[in-house]
Amino acid sequence: MILVTGGAFQGKKAYAMETFPLEESKIVDGRSCSWEEIYTAGGILHFHEYIRRSLEEGRELKTLAEDLARRNPEAVIVVNELGSGVVPVDAFDRSYRETTGRICCELAKKAREVHRVVCGIGMVIKHD
Amino acid sequence: MFALITGGSGSGKSEYAENRATELARKTGLPLYYIATMRPFGEEGRKRVERHQRLRSGKGFHTIERYVNLKELKLPQTGVVLLECLSNLTANEMFEPDGAGGDTPKEVLLGIRKIRSGSRHLIAVTNDIFSDGITYDKTTEQYQRYLGRINQELAGEADEVTEVVCGIPLCLKASASK
Known about the structure:
The complex is a heterodimer.
Chain A: E1 2-5, H1 12-19, E2 27-29, E3 43-45, H2 47-56, H3 64-71, E4 76-78, H4 91-110, E5 113-118, E6 121-127
Chain B: E1 2-7, H1 13-28, E2 32-36, H2 42-56, E3 61-65, E4 80-84, H3 86-95, H4 104-117, E5 121-125, H5 138-157, E6 160-165, E7 168-173
Parallel strand pairs in B: 1-5, 1-6, 2-3, 2-4, 4-5
Antiparallel strand pairs in B: 6-7
């Protein structure tokens, strides 16, 4: 598994497409894909939005990172780094931010590579 | 040489950029220009500008205030330029009546390239406004999109890209000669 993280609008998708052998047809978008599609996709974009939607629907996320690592070990996961602001006033926003962060930590632990993209430039922050 | 410096608010990126610029000016013996892009609004803005002026005083900067339309700016001489910062410049171009509006990314990039070609070294400071996880209104999101695009373009063209965290410079890209 490969995790690509970074702030919004940093060129993470372009970086992932350039760096990894990803086919456009095998990429799903966390904003719109079905719950199951992430387990068969080559690449998952906006993974934080998948988490947000899951939280909105009250889905259980405890085993998400583990399931993903087990069922789709070759996936390239692109996710926003979103924890560097003030604690959100809204309870849902707080839980979304925290849950996304925790899941990313777990994914990063299981991933063989983690890349962080800033201004379109990727830095490998983990490589097994 | 063209260096792009990024980092969050209060990360120490200005101080790092100033040191980098003064060092380059000292080495080359060229004049040192500071292009200030922040139009001070009210008490808070005035204080912010004053703080930056205080930090720069005695370092030999000639300050040039320029809020929009960088491409028309003529520098008195070829020198070392510190431009601070792209997030203000982008906001000015987008939201000020005399700004570029929908042409903001194009105009900002043109302006930076113009300054770059007219100077020996350019240090441009930008801002990480992308990592707080908040989904903003359409206008603010457009501002993030524009600045994100400008940052990526300039990072691609730059010889050096540095992210400053707690005053510590992290090298994202370095020129081969260094």
